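During the reporting period the student researcher (J.K.) took over the structure-prediction task from the postdoctoral fellow and processed the backlog of single-chain submissions. One of the processed entries is reproduced below for the supervisory committee.
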Amino acid sequence: MVSLRRKKATPLGKGGKGVPAKPKPPRGARAKQVRQAFALTRKSDPRLTLFVTAAFLAPFLLLLAIGFVIDHPWYTGFLGLMAGILAATVVFGRRVQKSAYAQVEGQLGAAAAVLQNMRGDWRVTPAVGFTREQDLVHRVVGRPGVVLVAEGSASRTKGLLGNEKKKLARFIGDTPVYEVTVGDGEGQVPLRGLERHFVKLPQNVKPKDVNILDRKLKAMATAMPIPKGPVPTRVPRGRGR
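J.K. obtained the following structure tokens:
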């Protein structure tokens, strides 16, 4: 007897061959990542366990106590459990991020590592300019326009920023160009506040025009390799808040 049930269509790739399904991540992979992040962060942040535990217990015990007062401990205890888990997760994430920034701060290319891990549609080109002393200027294209990010000596990167702006002027027309110098001095943006600074920039370019702008700048062929030296990449994605 011939079955009339239709076979499920198989997506075709090159040459008409079926495309294998995307493999699912192994079970427990997420939990393993969290354990690794916890272990690594605790080495540089010994009070991590204390802060996470306190963040969990504070809302849980408060809501549980309220439950006994109003004679609904099970209901408020469950709410306290959920609130405690949420609070502990937020505190854990912030401590991990703070520890990661502390590890890369002061290293060559630290700003580039942060820029490349920012959320959103940002086109980052590291080290479009640099000096022998390893001061760097990175170019970022996004909704605000073009942002030039300098890290290193402010006196030396000032010239790099000026040169890069002259190059851009011939290609981008009236597109806004912003300058950011990473550091803790006056008028500078701290490394851990870099993503927050980008979020606050005005949106001057339409999303469809970001691609056009990015292609124009890539045609300049001005991107240079980063000087020899370690470039940190272990910076977590986040909003930097």
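The committee noted the following: Confidence is low (pLDDT under 50) at residues 1-20, 222-231.
J.K. will present the remaining backlog at the next meeting.
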